[in-house]
Write a structure and sequence with these properties.
single chain, 381 residues, alpha/beta, eight-stranded parallel beta sheet, two-stranded parallel sheet, 30% helix, disordered N terminus
C-alpha cells in the first residue's frame, strides 16, 4: 500500500506483529508496495513463516513484569476528549493477559546469537513481549492444526493469543504483498478451517489487515463480494468460538476519513454483534496512539452498532509517531510504542497490540518480512 495505508507492508503485514506464521505450502513473503493513492500507505511485508509451532513455553519473568507495568497504567494513556457516545462504551478490561508464542523470527535470532552485543536490548524489549501470529498462506491443508497449536498453547497458560488471518483474494490489490486465496469461494473454505482451530478459550482475531481500507482499488461489485465474505468470516469465527473477539480493518488515522471508513465497515458486517467486536487500526504503521484513539472513536461513532464494539491499536512501532513525508519502508528514527496490553484505561479501546513484530523489515533494511537485528535494535534502544 502506499503512504497512509495500514500497517502491513507487503503482507501488508501487520505493522507491529509478533512473529508471523505461514501455513506451510506457500511462500509467505512479499515486497512492499507503493500505492498510487496519495492517501494510502503500504502495509507491512508478509511475515515469513515460522519454522514450527511447538508447545507453548511459559512467559519469561521480564515479559510478565513488562505486561504488568502496562496493565497497571504505569505508562500514561492518551486522554482525548470523550463524547457522550464514548462514555457508554465498555471501560472495563478484557479478560486475560496476552500470549507470547514461543516460535518467532526474533526468538530464533536470540537463540542463535547468544553473544551479540545487541541481544539483551532486543530480548528484553521485543523478544519478551507478546505479539500476533500471522497466517498468510491460503493453502487449507494445515491451517486448522496451526491455529489449534497457537490457541491451545495460549489456553494452557490461561492467556489470550492474537491471530491474524491474511489470505483474502486480491490481497494488497496486486502490490508487493499480493497473493491470498484464488477466489472468495476458496477463501470462505479456508476461513472455515481456520475457525475450526480456534478452540474454546479467549482469542483475538485481527481479520485481514487492509482488506477494507484498501478496497477502493476494487470495482463496486468486487468490493461488495469481498465485504460479504468478510461479514461471513466474522460470523463463522464467532460461531466456532463464542469467546473469540473479531476485529475489522479500519486502516489508520492518516488514511480514509472516519465516515468513509465506517460506511465500508458497516457493509462488511463490522456493526453486527454476530460477526464483530469492533475495529483495529495502525497495523504495521507509525501513527501516534493518541491520534489512533481519537480516530477509532470517531469511526466507532460513525459505525453505530451495539455499544460494546471497541477498537484495538497496533502500537508496535509508533513510539515516535509517523515520519514526515509519508515514508513507510523501515523509516529511521522510529521507536517501539506502548507495550501490548488488554488494559488500556481508555473507553472503547480494548487493547494495545503488537500486530507487526518490531524488527521484521518492510523491505528496505532487510528482505520484506524478515527479522533484521539492526532495525530491531534501532527501534528498541
Amino acid at each position: 500500500m502506499v503512504a497512509a495505508a495500514s500497517v502491513v507492508v507487503a503482507v501488508g503485514t501487520v505493522t507491529g506483529m509478533m512473529s508471523a506464521v505461514g501455513d506451510g505450502g506457500g511462500a509467505d513473503t512479499a515486497r512492499p508496495e507503493v500505492s498510487v493513492s496519495p492517501r494510502l500507505q503500504p502495509l507491512p511485508a508478509v511475515p515469513s513463516p515460522s519454522p514450527s509451532l511447538s508447545p507453548s513455553a511459559s512467559q519469561s519473568p521480564s515479559a510478565e513484569a513488562a505486561e504488568a507495568a502496562a496493565e497497571t497504567g504505569r505508562e500514561a494513556s492518551p486522554e482525548p476528549s470523550v463524547s457522550r457516545t464514548e462514555e457508554k462504551r465498555r471501560t472495563t478490561s478484557l479478560p486475560g493477559r496476552l500470549y507470547r508464542h514461543p516460535e518467532s523470527q526474533v526468538l530464533d535470532w536470540l537463540r542463535a546469537n547468544p553473544d551479540d552485543p545487541r541481544r539483551a536490548v532486543i530480548a528484553s524489549r521485543i523478544g519478551d513481549r507478546p505479539a500476533a501470529v500471522w497466517f498468510a498462506d491460503p493453502s487449507p491443508d494445515s491451517v486448522t492444526s496451526r491455529v489449534r497449536a497457537v490457541a491451545s498453547g495460549a489456553a494452557a497458560q490461561g492467556r489470550t493469543p492474537v491471530l491474524v488471518p491474511y489470505a483474502i483474494p486480491d490481497r494488497d490489490c496486486g502490490g508487493h504483498s499480493e497473493g491470498g486465496a484464488p477466489d472468495l469461494g476458496a477463501y470462505d473454505a479456508w476461513i472455515d478451517r481456520f475457525a475450526a482451530g480456534l478452540g474454546t478459550g479467549e482469542v483475538i482475531v485481527i481479520l485481514e489487515p487492509d482488506s477494507i481500507a484498501q478496497s477502493g482499488c476494487l470495482s463496486a461489485g468486487a468490493r461488495a463480494d469481498r465485504f460479504a465474505s468478510l461479514a461471513r468470516a466474522g460470523r463463522v469465527l464467532k460461531e466456532a468460538n463464542p469467546r473469540a473477539r473479531v476485529y475489522f480493518d479500519a486502516g489508520h488515522s492518516g488514511w480514509n476519513a472516519p465516515a468513509e471508513q465506517a460506511a465500508w465497515l458497516r457493509q462488511a458486517g463490522a456493526a453486527s454483534a454476530g460477526s464483530s467486536d469492533g475495529i483495529f487500526s495502525n497495523v504495521s504503521n507509525f501513527h501516534d496512539t493518541a491520534d489512533e484513539v481519537a480516530y477509532d472513536r470517531a469511526v466507532l461513532d460513525a459505525l453505530g452498532g451495539p455499544p460494546g464494539l471497541g477498537a484495538v491499536i497496533d502500537t508496535s512501532r509508533n513510539g515516535a509517531g509517523a515520519p514526515t513525508g509519508g515514508e513507510w519502508c523501515d523509516p529511521a528514527g522510529r521507536r517501539l510504542g506502548r507495550p501490548p496490553t488488554l488494559s488500556t484505561g481508555e473507553a472503547g479501546i480494548d487493547g494495545y497490540l503488537w500486530v507487526k513484530l518490531p524488527g521484521e523489515s518492510d523491505g528496505c533494511k532487510g528482505a520484506p518480512g524478515t527479522f533484521t537485528p539492526s532495525y530491531a535494535y534501532d527501534l528498541a534502544r
